Amino acid sequence: MSTLRRLWQTIWESYRVGLFVIAVAIVLTLLTPRFMQAENLMNVLTNASVTAIVGLGMTLAIASGNFDLSVGSIAAFAGSISMSLVPSIGIAGGVAAGLLTGAIVGLINGLIITELRVPAFIATLGMLTIVRGLTLIYTSGHDIYLYGQTGYKILSAGAMPLVLALVLAALLGFVVKYTRFGRHVLAVGSNSAAATRSGVRTSRVLWGVFAIVGTTAALSGMIISAQVLTANGRLATGLELSAIAVAVIGGTPLSGGKATMIGTLLGALLVSTINNGLNLLNVQIFFQELTTGVLLLIAVAFSIRRGYHPRALLRRQA
Amino acid sequence: MSATTISPLSTRRSLDWDRLWERFGISVVLLGVWVLAAIFIPAFSNPDNFINILRQSAFVGIAAVGMTMAIISGSFDLSIGSTLALAAWTAVVTASATGSALIALFAAVLVGALVGCVNGWLVTVVKIPAFVATLGMLFIVRGITFIITNGAPSRYNGPEFIWWGNGSLLGIPVPFIVFLVCAAIGAAVLRYTALGRYIFALGSNAGAARVAGVPINLVTFLVFVIVGIFTGISAMLLGSRLYSAGPGLEPGFELNVIATVVLGGTRLAGGRGSMLGTLAAALLFATLGNVLNLLQIDAFVQRVAVGLVLLIALSIEGVRQRLAERLSRE
Questions:
Q1: For residue B297, what is the nearest residue in chain A, using CA coordinates?
Q2: How many C-beta atoms surround the C-beta of residue A145 within 10 A?
Q3: N or C: which end of chain A has fewer CB within 10 A?
Q4: Do the chains contact at A130 and B304, CB–CB below 8 Å?
Q5: In chain B, which residue's Cα lies nearest the Cα of A123?
Q6: How far off is chain A from B282, nearest CA to CA, in Å?
């Protein structure tokens, strides 16, 4: 009996979100035949991947004990820069420029936090406004279209977003688990002062973390703009909150020091599956925000029962 | 042991500097900006223009009064942007049904307080950290607003109702008077009541506060209700100012409010902060927007400027700390 219970407990703790996804998928299959159609499933996966990619970066930031509120603005900025450069330097060049933009803005975030000692919450909040403004200035408030450059669609076509999300999850999962940098990220996230005393160069770790978050945000932004071959200053508004939401739903505790990349993938999949189901069942589109909120609260209520202390976050924001 | 060689006198002096900057720094900056703007931009000192600044500062400012208390207590509330939209819509609909501005105000405050109760319940009973609880509520309340409004704003322009957002008393805009009253009440609660002292105690050290007998759950709960109430007041004034309100109202409002509170010198870590700073910071942001408008700088550059001001203001302390550390090492 106790072995069974322990087995169930292990399954529950590691695959909780996955079980939810399966349960929701079964219910939807029973409710509407359209859910299981290949095209629809692809849709679910693509939508999940776009949030997951930036969510994976955010997971790393949360594991290091920080947030990045500027990812939505970075996504718009990188998308716009990348698209505007494609006609002159080609698709590969444009994508590289977008990723580089994300990494640079992320690095600036890191520098503001470590060198000017501004708390991450405020530093990235300031950058949210600044980078959004820069994007609007850069695009003069207009849309950037890519006429005839359908090659750019490679970023969003077919299984590409899914492949990118999976590769990124594997990569970041490996980094966190098996590299020195990854262990340092977790150390800084569990106890920044102790990590510093043990010789971890906290500043460099944070530069790396925020550069990675910026890069993932840029990638998400470019996929979103590739889907419609348009970029503008309003792209990806509010992405920061969705990214934090999927990471938390996936089981990464806000108290830092822990990260689950698979959890984040599943969290994004859960949100996207439920939203898709609501769509298919002709529920008003407005219910989608409601579900994200409810899911977030339920997920965290569960993780609290596993003994994570709710006050930890407050203490860390100094 | 070498650290003890710093004389007590010098540490106290540098501490006073800290305190002074924290308490009055932003007010001094505000006065400086006003003087410079008056000298270099002729249109700035025009009374109409100045009155406009006062009015604009109130909408974010009133919500920031509640948020100041929340941040001092070590929590914060991300849901207020959504609450603002729901409460403003409620105010407009109530005003158009009853014709009474006071009932509309009451309805908006009630909505705010209700959302605050749910937030407080989530944080103190379900034990979800404030950041996630109020982030979830941001989505939920916005969803509810979209559902009950069906995505469309409501309008009402009865003269009694729109006076609250657009009128003046003795030449001073009504929203600004309300803002001053709210800030005074907030400051009085923080300084002269047990609740205020509990809020500071909770924010400085939650564990110590609990051991000392502070009812931390009750205080946290009340703080969220207070944030909701002030957001409701702000929402009613905004609905009145715009003659309309709907689910699209003020995205990013919560972040503007938090930026205002923090620019005013309140520490995100809790335990320290002042209402005077919040008042000055709300005026400073309104002034900044106004000055950039007068200089005909486009709205996109304004966003960059606002973000830069926030970052510069908040990095001063860190940079000074670093300099002090370097000096003490030499």
A1: A137
A2: 13
A3: N
A4: yes
A5: B311
A6: 16
Class of domain B50-319: mainly alpha
Q: What is the greatest pairwise CA distance in chain B?
A: 72
Residues with Cβ within 8 Å of residue B189, at least 6 apart in sequence: B69, B195, B196
Q: B146 to chain A: which residues are within 8 Å by CB?
A: 284, 286, 289
Residues 120-179 of A with CB under 8 A from B: 121-123, 125-130, 132-134, 136-137, 141
- Angstroms from A205 CA to nearest CA on chain B: 19
Residue B236 has pLDDT above 80, yes or no: yes
Residue A161 sits at the vertex; the CA angle it makes with A259 and A41, to the nearest 5 degrees, is: 100
Which residues of A fall within a CB distance of 8 Å from B310? 122, 125-126, 129
Kindly determine whether residue A130 and residue B137, on different chains, have CB atoms separated by under 8 Å. no
pLDDT of residue A98: 95
CB contact (8 A) between residue B307 and residue A119: no
DSSP B11: H
The first and second tokens of residue B79, run together, are 């849901």
CA distance A317 to A309: 15
How much is the average pLDDT of A56-71? 93
Q: 3-state DSSP call for residue A95?
A: helix
- Percent of chain A scoring above 90 in pLDDT: 45
Nearest beta carbon to residue A300 from set B78, B132, B268 = B132
Q: Domain boundaries in chain B?
A: 50-319
In terms of pTM, does the model score above 0.95? no
Whose tokens are 């604009």? That residue is B56
Residues of B in contact with A312 (CB under 8 A): 129
Determine the pLDDT at residue A75. 95
Test mutation, B303, B319, B323, B325, chain A, max A CBs within 10 A: B303
Q: Is B84 buried (19+), middle (13-18) or exposed (0-12) by CB count in 10 A?
A: buried
- As a whole number, mean pLDDT of residues B286-301 equals 85
From A52-56, B8-12, B52-56, B320-324, the region with the lowest mean pLDDT: B8-12
Q: Which of the residue ranges A16-25, A49-58, A121-130, A297-306 would you say has the lowest mean pLDDT?
A: A297-306
A137-179 per-position pLDDT tens digit: 998 888 888 777 778 888 888 889 999 999 999 999 999 999 9
SS3 call for A308: coil
Confidence grade of residue B16 (pLDDT, cut at 50, 70, 90):
low
Residue with tokens 């042991």: B1
* ipTM reported for the complex, 2 dp: 0.77
Q: What is the pLDDT of residue B13?
A: 52
The nearest alpha carbon in chain B to A139 belongs to B300
CA A174 to each of CA A167, A267, B225: distance values in angstroms, whole numbers, following the listed order? 10, 19, 44
On whether the CB atoms of residues A205 and A64 are closer than 8 A, the answer is yes
**Which residues of B fall within a CB distance of 8 Å from A118?**
311, 314-315, 318
Among A249, A286, A291, the residue to mutate for chain B (most B Cβ within 10 A): A286
**What number is the average pLDDT over the span A255-273?**
90
Residue B7: is its pLDDT beyond 70?
A: no
Domain A39-305 has CATH 1.20.910.10: no
Q: Taking CB atoms and an 8 Å limit, are B74 and A254 in contact across chains?
A: no
| pLDDT of A317 higher than 60 | no
Handedness of CA A124, A125, A126, A132 (dihedral sign): positive
